[in-house]
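fold-stage: in
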Amino acid sequence: MPIQSTKNTESSLVLIVDDDHISATLISSILNKVCRCFTALSAADAIKFCENQLPDLLVVDVNMPGTNGLELCRQLKARQDTANIPLIFITAELGEDAQVSCWQAGGNDFVTKPIVAQTIVHRVRNHLLSKLRLDAVIKLSFEDSLTGLYNRNYLNEEYPRLSRQLMRDHQRLGLIIFDVDYFKQYNDTYGHLKGDMCLENVATVLKGYTRRARDAAIRYGGEEFILLLPNTGLSGTRDIANQILTDIYNLNMAHKHSPFDRVTLSAGAVSVQNMDRYTLNDVIEQADINLYDAKLKGKNKVISG
């Protein structure tokens, strides 16, 4: 669940999923003054869209050939990255069984055909407003106020869900813990305002390496940062850590009390599998041991294993 910038309903993205192109276009034309609309003509297209860009809400026709709207909803609710996206069904059936099926599939609301423009506009606007409020609460709860990265609350909340998904998918978790070298001396020499700017610069570099939906950069505390890299082996994790150290070095932030004459990072990297065997503390402890080793061996380096 990546931290989102503040948005309004007009900038929110709604994905309309309907195998009937005319119907999808009609709904889009009704909603285009409320939000940004995109269309998908099948469940497969909708999944592919969500993998590239997460919508704020989905409007899904129940009756589609192949994978119908109900099954699409179940698939989306089973995925970590799309589970919390609200979904409104479009259905031609008014009976109790049809309504119950919508709720049981995980839908958040439904609109019946023929569509009344004002009804779907109000339903969509209300769900978007609710999601924006929830996003704002999540942002306050899980965001570090200085750097804009995730904080430890997010890490503690997210790790159990992430580890279960990685275990189901038989994937590895790469984790890197970073520490700013000689940061106390930096603060003492240049002042806390410059120290904060230094941490913000480090955070900006780390954000650039969260390119996939489940990647996450976290301010772990003080001058320590963690990068979570799901589905990343030890070699890939180590390579990314080294790239980040190079990027920070090349920023050339002056530090006269460092032997490198600039701000540098040290890092400890690990990659673990069989997630049921490891608590969050286990993984961080191993990465921290490697970080400590990097510090002992001269700093500005990555130790992995």
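fold-stage: in (second)
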Amino acid sequence: MTGVSNRLRTVIVDDEPLARRLMRALLEEMPDIDLVAECRNGREAIEASRDLTPDLLVLDIQMPGISGFDVVKELQADLMPMVIFCTAYQRYAMDAFDLHAVDYVLKPVDGARLQRAVARALQRFQDADETVQYKAPLVGAIDDIAKKVIGRSEARQGMPSSEEDQLADRKIAIKDHESTVLVDIDDIDWVDAAGDYMCVHVKGETLIMRSTLKNLMSRLDPDKFKRIHRSTLVNLDRIVKATPLHKGEYILELDCDEKLKVSRNYRQAIKLFLNER
């Protein structure tokens, strides 16, 4: 997280020009906000988050192609800014945001409601230290909303034993709403942990599974999948470029056009990998 003084470096994300204009007008009146970018779609939001490392995203949920939920799932946990969802989503989904302490404003946007959400974000920012992770509650809310959308009232408590029995040596079963996807381990590009949820990135798709990182790592080949951050695993076969940064960190470019940051605490695995090449 980066910031100048106590102002939140903020990115607006909405596919509707009028909605972006209204949001910009409201946020420009707030002295705690420093607008650094406006994005028209989810892909631009992902790139802006990686390149600008903002403190806050004001993020529309319902966008064509890559939705606001997809943006959250795609970002590496240590690059995840705070998020205020801006949405016309069904009211029942708001319970999930409240349950997981995720901020939101409903469209049409009310200036006073937005001000309260920004004030909470500013308080979190001022109270935060380097260990704070924002992705876990966001993914928890997304998972909860997905269950409500398909009419399921019971939360998943992990993979049933019958599904565990179906796991082949080279496949992992991941519940995807009403179905189960069997993912070939070799097809996994990288994995991002958010609390008890794993965002498994496979051929441009992100699947969410309920698991701990330790549990998932026990199913993966330790010679192929390396931890590059406390919440991130990468498939070494997917790396096409490694660029060293200051303080011993790296930026990895994968063949799926993803960029991941290697923290200095986990750099040794990448250094060994590069020296072997």
